[in-house]
Amino acid sequence: MHKDIEKILYSEKDIENIVNTIAKQIEKDYNDKDFIMVGLLKGSVAFMVDLMRKVNLDFSIDFIVASSYGSGTVSSGRVNIQKDISQSVEGKDILIVEDIIDSGNTLDFITKYLKAKKAKSVKLCTLFNKPDRRVADIHIDYAGAVIPDEFIVGYGLDYDEKYRNLPYVGVLKPSVYS
Ligand code: PRP
Ligand code: MN
Ligand code: MG
């Protein structure tokens, strides 16, 4: 285990099971749809590549690079799009893939943004849902696991751009950020 990790919350195997469950639900719901799976980078990087390979349907993928946290542990509330989606979303069903929903500000902003670009539907898929600090009123369509209000890292999730490469998800030692 990495020296900065206090405890592991989800092992590689745990995550694999969650991904498989969500993939099956998506297969069922999107069976007859022409959809785009849109990963929100950078946090969704690991989840996106694992999830898309488990969904046995025809669809395209795309990415939006957006962030609101910078180097802090609390949402700034301002969402920056650093790289936009590379295709038209007009009339398309969009499935947004996110690593974690916390305040909900990021997803609220991105959902409205894609709807303004005339997407036919926008659904949200997140690996982790942290409802304790929710600010925005958003509806999550697919959620892997509910997590307590602890700062977690790994499997795409960072603190100050580190720990994204850990294959598991763990709680960061408070001494690292205090
Ligand atoms: C994190 C995470 C989500 C968002 C969730 O992204 O990946 O996108 O915050 O928080 P919210 O619900 O409070 O908006 P971050 O801004 O850290 O960028 P990153 O994906 O590049 O790490
Ligand atoms: Mn993110
Ligand atoms: Mg981040």
Automatic annotation (TrEMBL):
Protein name according to UniProt: Hypoxanthine phosphoribosyltransferase
Highest taxon of the lineage: Bacteria
SUPFAM superfamilies: PRTase-like
NCBIfam families: HGPRTase
UniProt KW keywords: Cytoplasm, Glycosyltransferase, Magnesium, Metal-binding, Nucleotide-binding, Purine salvage, Transferase
Location within or outside the cell: Cytoplasm
Family the UniProt entry places it in: Belongs to the purine/pyrimidine phosphoribosyltransferase family.
Cofactor: Mg(2+)
A single GO molecular function term of this UniProt record: glycosyltransferase activity
Role played: Purine salvage pathway enzyme that catalyzes the transfer of the ribosyl-5-phosphate group from 5-phospho-alpha-D-ribose 1-diphosphate (PRPP) to the N9 position of the 6-oxopurines hypoxanthine and guanine to form the corresponding ribonucleotides IMP (inosine 5'-monophosphate) and GMP (guanosine 5'-monophosphate), with the release of PPi.
Signal peptide per UniProt: none
EC number: 2.4.2.8
Enzyme class: transferase
Originating organism: Ruminococcoides intestinale
InterPro entries given in the database record: HGPRT, Hxn_phspho_trans, PRTase-like, PRTase_dom
Span of domain Phosphoribosyltransferase: 10-159
Catalytic reactions on record: IMP + diphosphate = hypoxanthine + 5-phospho-alpha-D-ribose 1-diphosphate; GMP + diphosphate = guanine + 5-phospho-alpha-D-ribose 1-diphosphate
Lineage of the organism: Bacteria, Bacillati, Bacillota, Clostridia, Eubacteriales
Pathway it works in: Purine metabolism; GMP biosynthesis via salvage pathway; GMP from guanine: step 1/1; Purine metabolism; IMP biosynthesis via salvage pathway; IMP from hypoxanthine: step 1/1
